Amino acid sequence: MLLAGAARASVGPGAAGRASTRASASIPRPIGLYVLDDVSDMRPAAKAYPNGLFTDTTYLQHIDGHAIFVPIAKIIPSIPVWGQFHYQWGFLDTLVLDATTHGKAFSIELESGFETKASTYPEALPDSFAISCGADCAPLFNVWVIGGSGGQCTSAYVMLPWVPQVQQFWSVTAESLAAHLHDIGAYGSLTLVHVPGLSVYDEELRLPTGSPTPSPSDTLPCPDQRPAYPSVIDDAAQSRWVTYGYSDSAVIAGFDVIANAFGQAFPDRFLGLSLFPHGSGAGIAFPNFTSDSAGYVAAQLVQEVGVFAGERLQLQSDNLDSGTVVMSVISLAHQDQGVIGWQTNKHGGNGAGCAGGGAGSCLPDGPDSPYLHLMQYGAAEGAHYLEIWPNDVLTYPQSIAAAAAEQLYSTASVDPGGVAPVLTELGQNAPNPFTDHAWIAYRLAKPGRVVLDLYDVAGRRVRALVDGFETAGLHEVIVDRAGLRAGVYFYRLSAGGSVGRRRMVLLR
Q1: Strand runs (DSSP E) across 23-175, as ranges?
Q2: Over 80: is that where the pLDDT of 267 sits?
């Protein structure tokens, strides 16, 4: 119901809590095949890609960008005193130069990672990070992972996002990274920045357990010399997490600070959230010691980012596989209208595995190969962005050429500049919080179909507010509390390819 004479909610611009509906035409979208670097913190950037990649015809013709992974220790080797962060950008610059000199776009993911000799990132955190940050900032946990013919214990320093020092570190790093990319003239080629905390090697939110769990017969010690059993089980216990201040609300609030810092440092670039499959046997769950359903915390974090960056949000999983595609990522992406991205599984050797297989399971290469089917599967789920391993470019040239012919991940199939937005402003409901009813105001630059829905914190649509054609100009709609319980809600407005989201609170 539109109210012509209702009190108007503010829709004017503002620095804090501004509408999430920036002109999407100015934001380059992450589209196409991006080749991943293949480095660890023990390898130089010069070894990031296999020999011959940059002169390969498949790379030159069909690769659109580089997905650059950077262990934190590579850009900030040590932190002798907390708050004095001295960045060294040479490692990052080498990888950025590899992309830009070949005319490619690039994305960036900063990784904290595992701190262990048994991992790809044994020095992923800077020297003295844990000591300088404090015992409750990056505590050491043990995790049981599958490796070789059996399980093994891996130690990880977990950066806890609800700790103010961690929020400070990521906020300063986001600002410094953005400033550096501007300084070297590479910012224009950047399309996507992953927000730390929801990504493969950022351990802030990974519950330190795995499958299978260790048993009393597992006598080999963990890298920190504690016995595998029962240290992994103890580390997964609720009591240890609670000791460091864990709660669902603490995670969500802390991550919101970090995500906002990246959103402000990169106001005109896409923000990436990489999600895990959750649940026993399917992956590593988000820490959740409440009665909330699986994936609750992840859904809330996506909602939080969607409030201020809804039109530039990409949800991604590293588990694209023809047998184990992550349905939770698809569901969240469809719910939030975010861009979907995938990364192919890595099984060593030839790169990606198909149908849960190991190295070589995507062979033979050809115009109807298993690898092509893998890419088709990802595209069928709505993705226009796919990260592939560098060896895959050399191993599956016919598959990649066939994918290009089908325009599966092609800039030709999606306008990289986005759509000229119909929606220009979405106001915060007034009053907020409210007890009886509230007004929502929005402004349209031109006429078009408008859909305005109300969601609860679990992401369920609880009310359709507007669904129909609207004229240009200012519009208002009233929300009353009938049928609603007290709590936090989100309202989402979609108009002409642009999306706005805001949060509202209903009091008792």
Answers
A1: 32-36, 65-71, 105-111, 140-147, 150-157
A2: yes
